[in-house]
Write a structure and sequence with these properties.
With about 280 residues, the chain is α+β, with helices and mostly antiparallel strands. It folds into 2 domains: about 110 residues, Butyryl-CoA Dehydrogenase, subunit A, domain 2 (Beta Barrel); about 150 residues, Butyryl-CoA Dehydrogenase, subunit A, domain 3, CATH 1.20.140.10. It has 5 helices and 9 strands; from the N terminus they run E-E-E-E-E-E-E-H-E-E-H-H-H-H. A 4-stranded antiparallel sheet has the order 2-3-7-6, with no helix packed on it. It has a 3-stranded mixed sheet with strand order 1-4-5, with helices on one face. A two-stranded antiparallel sheet has the order 8-9. Strand 2 and strand 3 form a beta hairpin. Helix 1 packs parallel to helix 3 and helix 3 packs antiparallel against helix 4. The longest helix is centred in the middle third of the chain and has 39 residues. The chain is globular and about 80 Å long. It starts with 7 loop residues before the first strand and ends with a helix. The structure holds flavin-adenine dinucleotide. Flavin-adenine dinucleotide binds next to strand 1, strand 3 and helix 5.
């Protein structure tokens, strides 16, 4: 995987179990010294091209002690693994998503990540937090492009004898984009630093993802506004950016889920301190 020879997909989400993975219904049943996997996943990035699926499955019914959820590595070619048709998405055409079905899929004991199952689940949840820093950084890059396109357009496009960039209300849109961008970039650098040092691997990534993806959404929206009617046309870059950044607020935990993580952690910390 590290060398890029194996494409892997992270197969967590199911119908009715996206924001709340505890609701997932895919099962891994012990069979001899291996496992039999049954269930269906949806919206799985890279599924049509995947060589390997990182599959989240329930070892025992909820609720019991612990999550009861295990992580198993399932090669795409194993009998019973079936990938659905590519989803028709709003944007991000550079990657594909699809449903993935597991029907009586048999894997050996080596497929289970982390031994007792819970270790694999914990590691996967930690990787989601790390991924949130990445999504935040990606959002900052998209916002930078939205600003660059907006400035270039404002500096050259005209209405009558005026360059639109001379209108103060257009300058205000550029200023709002720039202020959000600078704040987001500083935040994501700080969150990444605190993730690497181990100071904060839970709340900081959520704060960065929440702020930066919402900021990128506003930046792309303003970019379309700066372009006027041209901003709604397929041939301009900001029209694509507008659709592409919409996803950032949805996957790897929606904005609402980030707010729950941040707010919940603040309240728990206050309780622990007896405040
Ligand atoms: C293009 C794309 C690629 C994806 N890639 C992958 C992938 O590779 N692997 C993978 O496993 N998944 C992937 N996903 C799935 C993605 O992570 C989920 O769609 C996302 O987590 C939201 O889950 P959901 O779709 O079930 O929506 P829901 O959880 O049903 O959310 C619907 C609404 O309810 C809100 N909501 C839900 N629970 C709460 C709550 N407790 N409190 C308040 N509000 C709540 C949400 O914030 C949202 O506004 C992808 C999705 C898309 C669109």
């Amino acid at each position: 995987m590290a060398a890029g020879r194996v494409v892997a997909s992270f197969a967590l989400t199911e119908p009715g179990a996206g924001s709340n993975p505890a609701g997932l219904r895919t099962t891994a049943t012990a069979d001899g010294d291996g496992w039999v996997i049954d269930g269906a996943k949806q919206f799985i990035t890279n599924a049509p091209d995947a060589d390997l699926f990182v599959v989240f499955a329930r070892l025992r019914p909820a609720p019991e002690k612990g999550s009861g959820i295990a992580v198993l590595l399932v090669p795409a070619g194993v009998p019973g693994v079936e990938v659905g048709a590519k989803d028709a998405k709003m944007g991000q055409e550079g990657s594909s998503t699809a449903e993935v079905f597991f029907r009586g899929v048999r894997v050996g004991p080596e497929a289970l990540v982390g031994g007792d199952g819970e270790d694999g689940y914990r590691a996967a949840m930690t990787s989601l937090a790390r991924g949130r820093v990445h999504i935040a950084a990606l959002a900052v890059g998209c916002a930078q492009r939205a600003l660059d396109e907006s400035v270039a357009y404002a500096a050259t496009a005209t209405q009558g004898d005026s360059v639109i960039g001379d209108f103060q209300l257009v300058q205000a849109m550029l200023a709002d984009q720039r202020a959000g961008l600078d704040a987001g970039r500083a935040l994501v650098r700080d969150a990444a630093h605190r993730y690497v040092t181990g100071d904060d691997r839970r709340v900081g990534p959520s704060v960065a993802k929440l702020f930066c993806t919402e900021m990128a959404g506003r930046a792309a929206d303003l970019a379309v506004q700066v372009h006027g009617g041209a901003g709604y046309m397929r041939e301009v870059a900001v029209e694509r950016l507008y659709r592409d950044v919409r996803l950032l607020r949805l996957y790897e935990g929606t904005s609402e889920i980030q707010r729950l993580i941040i707010g919940g952690a603040l309240v728990r910390a206050a309780r622990a301190e007896g405040r």
